């Protein structure tokens, strides 16, 4: 018994030591002094080869343009990334034209490229050893059945499975052991049980685009009106992930842009949603609306109004600053407008072409 | 025919004091047989209009109009190797150049422009290029210039069959036939072609220095022009031309897509029906003509029948003209166009149809024989849209006249405009009905020297221009989507030099041409202040080309080279050049050998050509491979059974 105890103690100690060694290795390989900052994903343009990463050191307020290129011997990203996601010690960029998932380390040095079954990748989310990647699979606007999820094993670095998911899965979220997929070409939200991979649906009045998960594990989802699926029932939905019941908070002209059209404030009390509104002359101009998560109402005064070309909004988890990304086109640099957590305008910075979102590394 | 022009030119030079003849000298000294721009110049003194030579047309007959222009004219076309090519004439946008087939501007009404790789050189007899604005003559869209697709009227008496087979590198095939039949009054001309290009050319990806074979860039085009013409008399005739075109191509994969191997190429399928007929009566002091046309354009993306993008057009035109003397004349006309869009996305409650009407008046006046003045006025009316009144004036002044030469000074001022496309105005949600028309002013000054002797002819032209385009329309990010805006003001200026020399040395005929253009096109004003003062994208400051053609007996040898200067591909840049990505300049050299053989009175011509013989790697768009060295063999026959 004593020996058995010693053995257990040894194993426990070994596991702890090895685990901490692993963290130490990560810290050594990717020290915070080098990685800490906001990384702005500049989508560029389809077939334009103008995508880039801009690093923003928010402590010193310095920008480093073409960060990816700097870290990769002058090579550009090559294709247009519309979403970036950190999972474990890797970052995954969903690149279009050519279609691929680019895998980089926290220093943005390219590590791998996933191309197997990757056709028009949109978004991804990690769970256990797996990364689930939503793919349109082709002309989903013509044939909604071509879309699917790719199940990628991050340990073996292999695509293990294609899971058919008609309707053009876009944003993904995992909550309560289920994977939720917003569908851009069907008025429903797919819900996949992560154990059985059985898919059920929540019927909606408009097509959906992206999710944000609150502290209680429930989801907010954006509903939009698109060419192929117009709807007046746009706004912000709230899904109770225990019951899968949906509540709609109406908001007109929710942005049809990609991946970062909604973002929680640092304390989760507000949800920023990119949505246009009419100005005094009845011109539809871009803005960022504020949804109060306590009162479940949109505030009457938006964070931003009257700005054309807003692509997305991200919130710095460290200081709560709100970054609003403004595109001026796919061949010219865009802007990042910085607002304090309290909503005060701070500055406008020049970033790359068609900035879409920011990811924050420690 | 060539001798006819030469002798006409010399005669006119000698006479010297007859305006019309002198005009003919100036215009015909080096005019090849198919050049037909005299009618355009009659009312556009000072305008720069040139013809592509018949030899150049023959050399480039296997490809699209983009290949012809990029080799032999100082005009830049933004293109890839896979069947998409758009023109940038004098620094303007693709929808700023009208492409005219009879009385039809074939530019897409939804997109605003033409794909020049889908205009087959083979079907046409000649191409005239007008540099600078001509909206007062050609209507909406002719801001940067105009292209005239020419069909000769031979009034065939008998029959004549021409056939061409061409095989080239990368799976290129051209099969074409032109059949002429007539009795001197009635004439039928049938032109058919089939063009196929597998486009499986090798390239090296500069990102990794690995070699690949291009895939996903196949092109298959076919077309037919059927002419039916009838001549009532020397001054009265009816002409008609029906052009059916079916073009299919894969949207060329990027070099990285070829490398990754997981991308299925998308396709574009265009079907066009274009018909233009014209009755002309010149028997009376007031001459008149009436035209009727129909156009149906249809485009399918990825063969998706549910996403058709098309338009139907019916065009009617009536024109009267009168020459009071050789020094004074006018023409006046009216034109009506009924347009019915057939676009899957349009809301029929918003746009069911559109009507356009044009009234125009043109005149020429020569107060004395050294000076010719012209004027054009046009007012277009468009349903739910205000179009500006569009005038232009031009002048030509003869500076010197000798027994063998003419030196002229030319100048013109022309207003131009472009009505926004249907997509600009009516695309759901993002279409902007409040757009203003693009509004341009073109100022042109030129000098032209022509020399003509029995064995030596030359023409030198130098033109300086300034084109100021306001309310330039571009699509830009708006509230989640992209929308068209009247975004910029662009100044395009510069100068162009062209030289054409023809010499005859006993049994050797020589033709040497040079073109050069300097065109720094700048954004003067823009909604995005970062762009003010920047060079317009895809406009090279420098372009030049040279062409040498030597004929000895039945042998021909030609070589041509073209230089394309650096172009800005975007304003974003990279770590090495943060002001924008620049496409490197390049020089391409082509050459060929031809042999003609008469068998009875039938002509057989064999042409061997090699393009890009230095195998230069070059790019017209970032990421898209272009052809390296290629070869082509072409056999043409001209079976002549004519009585005339």
Give structural notes.
The complex is a heterodimer of chains A (362) and B (644). Chain A is 10% helix and 47% strand. Chain A has 3 helices and 31 strands. In chain A, β5 (90-96) and β6 (100-104) form a beta hairpin. Chain A is globular and about 50 Å long. Chain B has a single domain (20-640), classed as TonB-dependent receptor, beta-barrel domain (Maltoporin, Chain A), CATH 2.40.170. In chain B, 9% of the residues lie in helices and 56% in strands. Chain B contains 8 helices and 34 strands. Chain B has a 22-stranded antiparallel beta barrel. In chain B, strands 1-6-7-4-5 form a 5-stranded mixed beta sheet, with no helix packed on it. The two termini of chain B are 13 Å apart. Mean pLDDT of chain B is 91; it is low at 1-36. The chains are: A mainly beta (362), B mainly beta (644).
Q: What is the gist of this entry?
A:
The complex is a heterodimer of chains A (362) and B (644). Chain A has 362 residues and is mainly beta.
Pairing-aware structural class of the strands and helices of chain B?
A: mainly beta
**Proportion of β residues of chain B?**
over 45%
- Quick one: how many beta strands of chain B? 34
Counting DSSP H or I runs of 4 or more residues, the number of helices of chain B is: 8
CATH H-level superfamily of chain B: TonB-dependent receptor, beta-barrel domain
What profile does the largest beta sheet of chain B have? 22 strands, antiparallel, barrel
Q: If interface size is counted as residues with C-beta under 8 Å from the partner's C-beta, which chains form the largest one?
A: A-B, 55 and 41 residues
Total separate domains of chain B: 1
What is the residue-averaged pLDDT of chain A? 91
Shape annotation of chain B: globular
Characteristics of this structure?
heterodimer; A: 362 residues; mainly beta; five-stranded antiparallel β-sheet; four-stranded antiparallel β-sheet; 31 strands; 47% strand; B: 644 residues; Maltoporin, Chain A; 22-stranded antiparallel beta barrel; five-stranded mixed β-sheet; 8 helices; disordered N terminus
